[in-house]
Amino acid sequence: MNKLLSFFTTISVCLILTITFTEKSIAQQTGLGSTYIDTALFNDMEFRAVGPTRGGRVPAVSGIIGAPSSFYMGVGPAGGVWRTDNNGYSWRNLTDGKGLKSNSIGALAVATSDTSTIYVGTGTVNLRDNSLTGRGVYKSTDSGKTWEFLGLEETGAIGEIKIHPHDANRVYVAALGHPYGPNSERGVFRTKNGGESWEKVLFASDSTGAVDLELNPENPDIIYAALWRGERKPWEIISGAATENGLYKSTDGGDTWKELTKGIPAGLKGRAGLAVSPANPDRVYALLEAPGDKQGLYRSEDSGENWTQVSDTAGIMARPFYFTRITADPNDADVVYAMSVRDWKSVDGGLTFERRQVTHADIHNLWINPDNSDIQIQGNDGGAAITLDGGQTWSNQNNQATAELWQVQVDDQFPYRLYGGQQDNTTISVPSLPLHGGVTGPQDYWRETGGCETGPVVPMPGNPDIIFAS
């Protein structure tokens, strides 16, 4: 009976198409024998999302002080900026169709003095061979409803944005520069007028840029910066390889800088991540890529003047060119989180670390609510996840339409299914038409189809039960 219905359905479709073709004056031959298809038939077709809603890589996250259920995430590959107002139960996109020249988000910051003001830096410093080059800085003064381009278009990749806690118009940007070659628009930039104009206040060379920034919470004229030569070539990743790499400090709001060297390894250094807690503003953490056992976590108790290596735990420095991020608890300076392939937590000032269970591997960022340290948002290669209990439980990441898919294939069944490989996930197959009856929603109909991440997945023509995957 099913075959008979399929037969008559096919005949009906053919009849309709045949009548349509004869009414059209312009047709193109497809090369399939005598079949002709008029391309005008496709004029009214529109794209629709079919999934999967498995989140993609998120290097930028922030909460909103005074709104403990609201958070932002910036999606690195090309997903734009999203917001939730229900602790991650659902997300909505804020940047699609809003004029951004690049939807690759590397940094995001919300002004504490005016929480409707958001600054976004495009281009991610987590260098992969498929990294998209950013197109500058954008600003919203209405919580993401509209966006204004602020320039710095050639900064390529932006690792961090810091806003003065009492002045939403005074902003600092850590610009790595173009990820694939030299350019001069890199280093630390400052604006005092909300992005109307910018000053380059720290510059090392046309191949070394800034990757991270921290402001002293008590005295925001004290600024720390990490400089890094990070470059991606088709055959290698360059991390370090420049003598100007390292940690820098300003005590006059960025007018002048000095390199911090006492206790820091001499010679070549790679990427570094910085953290300062309001609970002890004189203490500075630096997660530092360096040769051999000099790599690891460094700590200063005197605002960066002198440093001591407190940990060389291997796990906190896995793939340092891709991670090397650290966050200090705003209410307890002894609690510090190191982000790498896994998520690591220390409660003794970085002397020891324990792994924390999270929703997905490859951790890129963490924001902690200063009013309640149990409220956090984390960005990883599977999206953004929120905890309200200090990491004991996390929100779902299968509700974010931000997957980075490497390719797409379709089979020839009816209705057909689509296949692709998702970055830092499995290959996956989803139905082309919405199906009903799933207990937990559309993900009931997702199928892992044999491969992993970049591996191709191809259904066999004529037999959709046979899948080739790599």
Quick take:
The protein has 470 residues and is mainly beta. It has one helix at 2-23; strands at residues 28-29, 36-37, 60-64, 67-75, 80-84, 92-93, 105-110, 118-122, 137-140, 148-151, 158-164, 167-175, 187-191, 199-202, 209-215, 223-228, 230-233, 236-239, 246-250, 258-260, 272-277, 280-288, 296-300, 308-311, 325-328, 336-339, 343-346, 354-356, 363-368, 376-380, 383-387, 409-410, 417-421, 427-431, 457-460, 463-469. It is globular.
CATH class of the largest domain: Mainly Beta
Strand content: 35-45%
Strand order of the largest sheet: 3-4-5-6
- Provide the residue-averaged pLDDT: 90
Instruction: Based on the coordinates given, report the CATH architecture of the largest domain.
Output: 7 Propeller
* Low-confidence sequence ranges: 1-32
Number of domains: 3
DSSP E strands, number: 36
As a percent range, the share of helical residues equals under 10%
CATH homologous superfamily caption of the largest domain? YVTN repeat-like/Quinoprotein amine dehydrogenase
- Span between termini: 38 Å
Silhouette: globular
Structural class: mainly beta
| Most strands sheet | 4 strands, antiparallel
Which topology of the largest domain does CATH recognise?
Answer: Methylamine Dehydrogenase, Chain H
Q: Give the C-alpha Rg.
A: 25 Å
List the helices and strands and how they pair.
Elements: H1 2-23, E1 28-29, E2 36-37, E3 60-64, E4 67-75, E5 80-84, E6 92-93, E7 105-110, E8 118-122, E9 137-140, E10 148-151, E11 158-164, E12 167-175, E13 187-191, E14 199-202, E15 209-215, E16 223-228, E17 230-233, E18 236-239, E19 246-250, E20 258-260, E21 272-277, E22 280-288, E23 296-300, E24 308-311, E25 325-328, E26 336-339, E27 343-346, E28 354-356, E29 363-368, E30 376-380, E31 383-387, E32 409-410, E33 417-421, E34 427-431, E35 457-460, E36 463-469
Antiparallel strand pairs: 1-2, 3-4, 4-5, 5-6, 7-8, 8-9, 9-10, 11-12, 12-13, 13-14, 15-16, 16-19, 17-18, 19-20, 21-22, 22-23, 23-24, 25-26, 26-27, 27-28, 29-30, 30-31, 32-33, 33-34, 35-36
